[in-house]
Amino acid sequence: MIIKGGIVYDPANGIFGEEMDLCVDEGRMAEDAKGEEIDARGLLVMPGGVDAHSHIAGTKVNTGRIMRPDDARLGIEPRSGVCRPCTGYTVPNCYAIGYRYARMGYTTTFEAATPIIEARHTHEELEEIPILDKGALTLFGNNWEVMECVRDKDIGKLAAYVAWGLRSARGYGVKIVNPGGGEAWGFGSNVKGPNDPVPNFDVTGAEIICGLAQANEMLRLPHSIHLHFNNLGKPGNYTTALETLELLKDIKPSRKRQVVHVAHMQFSAYGGTSWRDFESKAPVIADYFNSHNHATMDLGQLLFGSATTMTADAPLEYGNARLTHNKWSNHDIELEESSGVVPMVYFRKMLVNAVQWAIGLELALLTRDPWKVLMTTDHPNGSPFINYPEVIALLMSKPKRDAEMATLHEQLPKRTGLGGIERELDWTEMAIMTRAASARILGLEDKGHLGPGADADISIYNLRPEEVDPSRDHALVKKAMAAAKYTIKSGIVVSQEGQILAAPQGRTFWVDAAVPKADTDRLMVDLQEKFEKYYSVRLSNYAVQDAYVPNPKVIRAGIQMEVA
Amino acid sequence: MKTITITPLKAFEISVEAENISPDKLAPLTLRQIRSLSIWQGNRKRKLSDLFRAEGDDGPAKVEDVTITLQGDFSRAKRIAEGMTAGKVEAEGGVGMHAGNNMKGGLLSVQKDAEDWLGREMRGGKITVSGNAGNYVGAGYRGEKCGMRGGEIEVGGNAGAYLGEHLCGGSIRVHGDAGDFPGAANQGGTIFIGGSTYLPGAEMTKGTITVRGRARVLPSYQKMEIMSIEGEDFQKYVGDLVEKGTGELFVRVGSS
Amino acid sequence: MIVEDAICSFCGCLCDDINVEVEGGKIKRVRHACRLGSSKILGHGRIKAPMIRRGGELCMVSYQEAYDRAAEILLRAQKPLLYGWASTVCEAQKKGILLAEEVGGVLDSTATVCHGPSVIGIEEKGLPGATLGQVKNRADTIVFWGCNPAEAHPRHSLRYSSNVCGRFTPEGRAGRKIVVVDVRETRTSKNADKTVIIQPGTDYEVISALRMLVAGKSDVVPDEVGGVPKAELDGLAKTLLAARFGAVFFGLGITHSRGRYKNIDNALSLVTELNSHTKFVIMPMRGHYNVGGIGQVLAWSSGFPMSVDFTRNAPYFNPGETAACDLLAKADTDAALIIAADAASNFPRAAVEALAKIPVIQIDPYENPTTLISEVVIPSAIAGVEVEGTAYRMDGMALRMRKLVDTSYPSDEEILSHILESVHRLQRGLER
């Protein structure tokens, strides 16, 4: 296939809006090719979108569906052509997830948080999602084995557990959510911050984070630790963000990437002391990211309207439910994690929601280096992913932001400096924040760029970047980003003008990390005891079997060692 | 005035979905177009004329000037008058489930019985049923906090269970008995039950329920004073206190 | 040969520590399972070959004939019902959903006669829950409401609840308070520390009273609720509040007594409110071993966990209208595929009578009352014994059932695939 004459944005390869042809051969980018020609003359062309943080598969996602028939009945699309029926707005069914991401030009999406013991369920759902390449991050922040290794300062055993856990879960990377708090929630409490000791375990969240970061680098995993801070969602929590980031600044990454990726930074950039004096601390956070290079973030942008909050931060969800008197699902997972699901609505005229909306945008606009910032909504916590075009349009257009701000609570300008920010992101920066940077941050070498050998995941949009001014024509930008003219996945046109033409099965990325046998042997002594005494499932039935990952893409990693 | 009379050609076995039988849908259409409207019967998409005879006035009209007369048994025809904003639908027999779903205005009158989910999520307008109504009269959809938000429903006979579940506004009047749990999780609106019922106002936070017959009352309702309403004595209760509710429940004295 | 850690395919406990002795391709002995599970795994006489009813009698036919006839019946129907699903693996359930979409039918599971009301309650209030290992390791107070695990889930107390020891519960039974709430004494209540007997049909009121007592609003509560003196209810409320970690398990006693889903709705709120004082979780005691599975698979496939109507090419969910018993009660279905469930034994009589009037396709390893009213009978391999695949435990935990012995019977998944093929062939034929 040859894509002719597109205005290509491939920032990873230094291409910032150049008119050029792209060649695809056998599902990969190539120097030249024959075959089908796609006319993209003058149109915006980028690598396929890569979403590094979204809740798309697993127990809590399905719990969201089960408890929300009121959401499922929205967004109903009857079966047609190659498409199975779709339902849902904030909690779409599996088919809707695949088709809707593909329509927008996204081709790779990662599930943000999976407990090892429930990874089998996650993979069942991932396999049901059409088109996309995917992976799942594995939760380690509240596991009993992790806390005990950290307490005993046994990083070798910790690394062995991380490797074992990733293999058992067919997971891609290390996810940490409210470390220590998930365990405390097992008896209904929480931790007050990273230095608050976890009840019954004699460790702190800070120690857990540092231990896992060290193990992550020892194992040379493609991704860094992916961290959801303690105290998320609380007024004044920006101090927790900064003090936690400080813990990690001296750790050396084992690859050319960050040492920590911060999940949905917006929810941890809060000032004030209560909801009454709640204000944005985005400038302080952005300053930190501007003066340090060990961290990256994804936004977790909030948009007005319906959402479903779902996270492994179970105490937070309980708090949400009490605050809004909404239905509440909770799921604590033995020896590993906790989670919660609560529907939410965000209102323009509610000052707190308006400030939250502003914070996400501020973070993106005030952080100078776009390679440190990923555009996400923490789907479906801030907003469903189907609304990404709205975020893109806001980031590229000050007039749009101003128009939107005029409809919000009138006190907003007192709580955020967003109104004074002139910066408008350009296509290069958007391509970085939605493709190039996400792939680099995750450590996906063949994604997020269009150099030879990369996966031929390409999006072509109905927009002429050389003619359109995104600042003035933001409505056009939003419309164009909502439905790609062509979405190409592994060299196959899967979507055209918003219609799904093909629904091939994507691959599931997971990491197989090697560790010294001696460490694994010591680990297994611990685990055997835990399965004998504490788990409700037998060790031999625990790990995810091959049958659940029929289309794997295995990335090897591990501790540098003599090969026996 | 535009009057259309619709009669089933024969009894249906599998129920039909008749959301196209509504003044809003028929107002701009000719008789020919009306007869070509789609009516689903299970997984078969049929034309209206496959199942019904349609006679009446040709030519377009304003919605409020449309009267649809349903002659015969429509008890297996669902979603009649769904979403109607004006005009009249007069059923001489019974109507199927979801009659008057999402209704916003106009009048739906039923001479015989109405099946479950009469006036679901109603917003305005008026529904009258001379016979009995099924379960979930004026109720909402699963998982939604608010169901019916406005309008009036009146049932001459009895109503089934879950009358006005999740009621947020509007009024429902049942002359006969109501089944279990009327006014469950209500946040507003008024319910009147001429006969007896069981555990009214479960988790009600606001609204008014009046029962002229007998009612078993929840242990989470606070007994207040006895009040006179239209010359009869009613015991007043406030609840449902499990939800810190300030709803009012009136049960006629001497009938408990 | 001993297969260790096999997973039992009977109830929602999904015990995964079963040892099965296999000799000569047959199961000889089962260890660790309860008698219900053992019996299931050991198996019994089964249907030998596919059959089609001709002239009132079931006659043996080839599998292909059976598939073709099934496809014909399904395609001819305007509103076929595809029911059951609870005793087979998820891989088959996925095919079933595809089949329902393709033939434009209604798909429902045995939850409709079991925990369907619990699902509706969850749609109102959410589910404050946990995995069974949390109960094992933390619960010091356990309430069994309207369920009798001693008889229906025999190993529950041993593996997950009353009697098991865990990290924070090293004393096991001795360190726990077990409470039973029921309408009469049961085998479970004989081993309880406290039994509260309530009048039948008063669960809702008793729960409301408990909510009031837990919230400290005792004054309003009458002296007796559901036949239980207020002092006794107050004692129960205090027991709940004194828990370090409480777990409520509930069953058909409360889902099918007067109030139905409102009872569950109220119980979920009680547990939510208890969480503002201490830690509490609640869990339905699922009956069939994979009724949890069909709920999960249907939810991620269609957005809804049961009673899904696909007739208009898009999922529509409205229990009370789209559930199997609703359709049968109103004679609003004209064909049925019954798989991995015994509808004729478990449905209300009026529903069974309606079922007997329409063509029924049965897919099952075993003969049962549904066979008597079936027009097509297709014997399948036994999932969880002869076929491996996924099942979901009562707490949502997914496990992989093992294959213990070989078989020449086709699996449910294979049968459904073949029926789908026949459906496609017939559809193409009709188009020409």
Structure overview:
- The complex is a heterotrimer of chains A (564), B (256) and C (432).
- In chain A, strands 6, 7, 8, 9, 10, 11, 12, 16, 21 and 22 form a 10-stranded parallel β-sheet that branches. In chain A, strands 1, 2, 3, 4, 5, 17, 18, 19 and 20 form a 9-stranded mixed β-sheet that branches. A 3-stranded antiparallel β-sheet of chain A has the order 13-15-14, sandwiched between helices.
- In chain A, helix 5 (144-151) packs antiparallel against helix 6 (155-169), helix 6 (155-169) packs across helix 8 and helix 13 (388-396) runs antiparallel to helix 17.
- Chain A is of the alpha/beta class and 564 residues long.
- In chain A, strand 21 (508-514), helix 18 (517-533) and strand 22 (552-558) form a beta-alpha-beta unit.
- Chain A has helices at 59-66, 69-72, 94-103, 119-128, 144-151, 155-169, 181-184, 205-218, 238-247, 282-291, 314-324, 351-366, 388-396, 398-405, 412-415, 427-442, 474-482, 517-533, and strands at 2-10, 15-25, 28-30, 37-39, 44-47, 49-54, 106-114, 133-139, 173-177, 225-228, 260-262, 295-298, 305-311, 329-333, 337-346, 373-374, 458-461, 486-489, 492-496, 499-500, 508-514, 552-558.
- Chain A is built from 18 helices and 22 strands.
- The longest helix of chain A has 17 residues, at 517-533.
- With 256 residues, chain B is mostly beta strands.
- Helix content of chain B is 5%, strand content 34%.
- Chain B contains 3 helices and 19 strands.
- Chain B has helices spanning 23-26, 31-36, 48-51; strands at 2-8, 16-17, 38-41, 44-47, 52-56, 66-70, 77-78, 88-91, 107-110, 126-129, 152-155, 171-174, 187-193, 197-198, 206-211, 215-216, 222-229, 232-239, 247-252.
- In chain B, strands 5-1-6-8-9-10-11-12-13-15-19-18-17 form a 13-stranded mixed β-sheet.
- Chain C is α/β, with parallel strands linked by helices and 432 residues long.
- Chain C folds into 2 domains: 47-114 and 289-431, Rossmann fold; 116-284, Dimethylsulfoxide Reductase, domain 2.
- Helices cover 37% and strands 21% of the residues of chain C.
- Chain C has 18 helices and 22 strands.
- Chain C has helices at 35-42, 63-76, 90-103, 116-125, 132-138, 149-152, 156-159, 187-190, 203-214, 230-241, 252-255, 261-274, 291-302, 324-329, 343-346, 349-356, 369-372, 412-431; strands at 2-6, 18-23, 26-31, 51-54, 57-60, 81-84, 106-109, 128-130, 141-145, 177-182, 194-197, 224-225, 228-229, 245-250, 279-284, 308-309, 316-317, 336-339, 360-363, 376-378, 389-392, 398-401.
- In chain C, the strands form 5 sheets. Chain C has a 9-stranded mixed β-sheet, with helices on one face. In chain C, strands 11-10-9-14-15 form a 5-stranded parallel β-sheet.
- In chain C, strand 10, helix 8 and strand 11 form a beta-alpha-beta unit.
- Chains in contact: A-B, A-C, B-C.
